Amino acid sequence: MAGLPTGGLSSEDEKRMMGIMQEMQIQDSMRLYNELVATCFQNCVDNFRSSKLEGKEEACVVHCAQKYLKAAARAGQRFAEQQQQQMMGLSGSSGSSGGGSK
C-alpha cells in the first residue's frame, strides 16, 4: 500500500491504518467470493439428482465465474481511477478557494 497519503501519521498509527485496510480488503474479497458463488449457483445449477455438476452446469459456472470476476475487476479499476482523479483534484485545489471545477 505504498504511496498512500498518510497525512503525517505516526508510525504506530500508520501500521494500525494499514492493518484496518488489509482487514477491509479481506472482507471485500470474501464478500465478492460469496456473491460469486451465490449468483453462479442460482443461475447455473438446476439439477439436484447428483452430487456432481453436469457438463452444461459446470460450463455455465465456469463462464459465470469468469464473467463475474472480469466485471468486479473492471469496477475496481474504475473506482481506482475515480479515486486517483479525486486525489489529483484535491492536490490541485489545495490552497485555492475551491473554484476548480471540471
TrEMBL record:
GO terms for cellular component: mitochondrial inner membrane. Residues 83-94 have a biased composition (Low complexity). GO terms for biological process: protein transport. Residues 83-102 are annotated as: Disordered. Its main location: mitochondrion. GO terms for molecular function: metal ion binding. Gene3D superfamilies: Mitochondrial import inner membrane translocase subunit tim13 like domains. Residues 20-81 form the Tim10-like domain. SUPFAM superfamilies: Tim10-like. InterPro entries: Mito_inner_translocase_sub (IPR050673), Tim10-like (IPR004217), Tim10-like_dom_sf (IPR035427). Keywords: Chaperone, Disulfide bond, Membrane, Metal-binding, Mitochondrion, Mitochondrion inner membrane, Protein transport, Translocation, Transport, Zinc. It is a peripheral membrane protein. Transmembrane segments: none annotated. It is found in: Mitochondrion inner membrane. Heterohexamer. The twin CX3C motif contains 4 conserved Cys residues that form 2 disulfide bonds in the mitochondrial intermembrane space. PANTHER family: MITOCHONDRIAL IMPORT INNER MEMBRANE TRANSLOCASE SUBUNIT TIM9B. Belongs to the small Tim family. Mitochondrial intermembrane chaperone that participates in the import and insertion of some multi-pass transmembrane proteins into the mitochondrial inner membrane. Also required for the transfer of beta-barrel precursors from the TOM complex to the sorting and assembly machinery (SAM complex) of the outer membrane. Acts as a chaperone-like protein that protects the hydrophobic precursors from aggregation and guide them through the mitochondrial intermembrane space. This is Mitochondrial import inner membrane translocase subunit.
